[in-house]
């Protein structure tokens, strides 16, 4: 991260702002309430018998009190638009000011006709650094300015709730909102704004920033079509929809450097159908990495690299937890994700993505740290170059994961490996295709390095063979490689099998990701050795089944462990709905039995879930997240 005197000055300014707010709130003046009873913007600067919104703001600015502005319910008893006749509305408040239109039908504050006007709607600042403003239930529209077409703020805390910022234009940065203070948004809609520079929806630099339960959509900019964030003291997004945004440069949805003090965490985000003329159709991340939890990133596109996510060189670890990245596309590398820093995926799905270059699903070009996939599924991805599912130039570590149905035009349908020491454990590769190495292609940068396989299935490769070694070593222990063991030239500790593993189709077999079950009679059952205590779904491993000879410690080979049937085992399933009968996809369903053991599953595209081989006759608790 860049460190500059500018940043340090702003840090101290923020601390002064927070301390100033505390002192100001400790010395509370008598609060005043001003009632707006005029729809027009022709006022006299005083809020008396006739009071415009401009008059009310001027009155509040003249005091240090914690003021409130409300609207006359007899005047605003139907949706009304206050169109600014002059300059922007300036809030200069050293206490707190709340503008609240709750209880009236709906109020829009417009900067003008949206074409010829030159008015920003709100400029909110505090010279003393002790000001705070809250705007509740307003629509802010048709503002035009160099920075912050709808709202510009400086050295102030601004909270926006139940409001809409739409149709605003910036000739610089921040089409909707230009942040120069602590910005908090809840139940906020930012849509249809435009910036000639960066951050079509929201631009924020150096100050804290938090958005929750909000939608940011249909916005255009040069960089950061929807949200542009640079070196903020903190940056948090929770339960947010970011969709239909466009950047002519990088970051169609979000452009971020990350928190000033660490990696930002995004939770419950739906980032969809955004596009970038450069890199990162959904998210472009620079310097620090990201942590994405319970997120869906889908339908995004980039002309260059990283259709879903692009991570620039350097930075902290990028983490993907319980998330789905699907149907994204890149003209270059990384249809889903291109990372140049450490990447970890847990309980996540990467599916149906395409790349014009390498890495239809995941591409790691220059990272010095390994790419790690744990209990995750990479399926149905396509690359016109190498690595249909995964393209890796450094190191890769796969544990209890499924790589299925991926395709590459040249090498490595499932994974193309050309880095340093890598390992694949307790995983399943099936149905992948390429000219060479339909399942796995190994060509390490150092011929003394290579890949080690343990308790892994590589099978059913449509073209290119299951495993192709160009150079280096491939060591193996207790695997099943259907078409032969010819690629193994390293440490071969035996117990490797060939033949058809007899896999079921990719489907929801419990857990948060789809897997291939082992069908009755599979030669992979009880034939492996695993040090793991659970399989990809979180089910117990190893399980010794009657009638199958043991090899190793009796674990099943691959990502799926067949569970022992009980005398009265049952299947528990259902469907999750939201609202008026709409199915809820990708929800996490947890089932806790009478012994306190918990299993999890993710709902399908139609909202269905199921738990197999469950002991009958006991009470269970099912919850949905």
Write a structural description.
- It is a single chain.
- This protein is mostly beta strands and 625 residues long.
- It is built from 2 helices and 65 strands.
| Largest sheet: number of strands, sense, barrel closure | 30 strands, parallel
Strand content: 35-45%
The total of beta strands comes to: 65
Radius of gyration (Å)? 28 Å
The secondary structure category is mainly beta
Tell me the overall shape. Answer: elongated
Share of helical residues: under 10%
Strand and helix map with partners:
Blueprint: H1 5-26, E1 33-36, H2 53-61, E2 67-71, E3 80-83, E4 89-92, E5 96-100, E6 107-110, E7 122-125, E8 132-136, E9 138-141, E10 144-145, E11 151-154, E12 157-161, E13 164-166, E14 169-170, E15 177-179, E16 182-186, E17 189-191, E18 194-195, E19 202-205, E20 209-217, E21 220-221, E22 227-230, E23 235-243, E24 246-247, E25 254-256, E26 265-272, E27 275-276, E28 283-285, E29 291-293, E30 296-298, E31 301-302, E32 309-311, E33 318-321, E34 324-326, E35 329-330, E36 337-339, E37 343-346, E38 349-351, E39 354-355, E40 362-364, E41 371-374, E42 377-379, E43 382-383, E44 390-392, E45 396-399, E46 402-404, E47 407-408, E48 415-417, E49 422-425, E50 428-430, E51 440-442, E52 450-454, E53 457-459, E54 467-469, E55 473-477, E56 480-481, E57 503-507, E58 515-518, E59 569-575, E60 577-578, E61 582-583, E62 588-592, E63 598-602, E64 608-615, E65 621-624
Parallel strand pairs: 1-2, 2-5, 3-6, 4-7, 5-8, 6-9, 7-11, 8-12, 9-13, 10-14, 11-15, 12-16, 13-17, 14-18, 15-19, 16-20, 17-20, 19-22, 20-23, 21-24, 22-25, 23-26, 24-27, 25-28, 26-29, 26-30, 27-31, 28-32, 29-33, 30-34, 31-35, 32-36, 33-37, 34-38, 35-39, 36-40, 37-41, 38-42, 39-43, 40-44, ...
Antiparallel strand pairs: 57-58, 59-64, 60-61, 62-63, 62-65
């Amino acid at each position: 991260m860049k460190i500059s005197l500018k940043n340090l000055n702003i840090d101290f300014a923020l601390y002064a702002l927070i301390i100033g707010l505390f002192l100001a709130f400790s010395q509370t003046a008598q609060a005043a309430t001003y009632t707006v009873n005029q729809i027009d913007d022709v006022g006299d600067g005083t809020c008396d018998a006739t009071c415009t919104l401009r008059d009310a703001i001027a009155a509040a600015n003249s005091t240090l009190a914690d003021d409130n502005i409300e609207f006359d319910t007899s005047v605003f008893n139907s949706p009304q638009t206050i169109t600014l006749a002059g300059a922007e509305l300036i809030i200069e408040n050293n206490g707190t000011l709340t503008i609240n239109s709750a209880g009236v039908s709906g109020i829009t504050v417009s900067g003008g006709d949206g074409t010829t006007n030159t008015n920003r709607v709100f400029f909110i600042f505090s010279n003393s650094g002790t000001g705070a403003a809250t705007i509740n239930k307003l629509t802010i529209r048709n503002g035009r300015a160099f920075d912050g077409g709808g709202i510009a703020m400086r050295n102030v805390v601004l909270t926006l709730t139940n409001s809409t910022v739409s149709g605003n234009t910036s000739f610089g940065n921040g089409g909707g909102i230009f942040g120069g203070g602590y910005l908090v948004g809840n139940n906020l809609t930012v849509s249809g704004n435009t910036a000639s520079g960066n951050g079509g929806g929201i631009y924020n630099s150096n100050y804290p920033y938090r958005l929750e339960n909000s939608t940011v959509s249909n916005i255009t900019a040069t960089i950061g079509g929807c949200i542009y964030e640079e070196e903020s003291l903190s940056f948090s997004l929770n339960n947010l929809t970011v969709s239909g945004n466009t950047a002519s440069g990088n970051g169609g949805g979000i452009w971020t450097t990350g928190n000033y003090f660490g990696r930002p965490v995004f939770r419950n985000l739906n980032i969809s159908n955004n596009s970038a003329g450069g890199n990162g159709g959904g998210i472009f991340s620079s310097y620090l990495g990201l942590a994405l939890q319970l997120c869906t990133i889908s339908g995004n596109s980039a002309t260059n690299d990283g259709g879903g996510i692009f991570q620039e060189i350097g930075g902290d670890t990028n983490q993907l937890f319980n998330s789905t990245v699907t149907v994204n596309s890149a003209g270059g590398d990384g249809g889903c994700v291109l990372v140049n820093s450490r990447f970890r995926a847990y309980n996540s799905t990467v599916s149906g993505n395409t790349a014009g270059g390498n890495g239809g699903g995941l591409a790691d070009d220059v990272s010095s740290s390994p790419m790690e996939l744990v209990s995750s599924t990479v399926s149905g991805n396509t690359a016109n170059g190498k690595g249909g599912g995964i393209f890796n130039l450094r190191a890769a570590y796969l544990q209890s994961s499924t790589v299925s149905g991926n395709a590459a035009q040249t090498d490595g349908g499932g994974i193309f490996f050309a880095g340093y020491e890598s390992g694949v454990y307790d995983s399943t590769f099936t149905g992948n295709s390429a000219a060479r190495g339909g399942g796995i292609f190994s060509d390490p940068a150092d011929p003394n390095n290579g890949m080690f396989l343990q308790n892994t299935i590589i099978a059913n490769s449509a073209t290119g063979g299951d495993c192709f070694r160009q150079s280096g070593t491939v060591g193996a222990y207790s695997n099943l490689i259907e078409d032969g063991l010819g690629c193994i030239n390293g440490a071969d500790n035996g117990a490797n099998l060939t033949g058809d593993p007899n896999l079921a189709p990719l489907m929801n077999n419990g857990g948060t990701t789809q897997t291939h079950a082992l069908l009755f009679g599979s030669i992979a059952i009880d034939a492996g050795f695993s040090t793991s205590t659970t399989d990809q779904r979180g089910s117990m491993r190893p399980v010794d089944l009657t009638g199958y000879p043991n090899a190793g410690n009796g674990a099943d080979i691959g990502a799926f462990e067949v569970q022992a049937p009980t005398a009265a085992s049952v299947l528990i399933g259902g469907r999750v709905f939201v609202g008026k009968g709409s199915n809820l996809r990708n929800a996490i369903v947890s089932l806790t039995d009478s012994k306190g053991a918990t299993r999890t599953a993710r709902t399908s595209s139609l909202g269905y879930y199921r738990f197999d081989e469950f002991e009958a006759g006991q009470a269970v608790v099912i919850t949905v997240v």
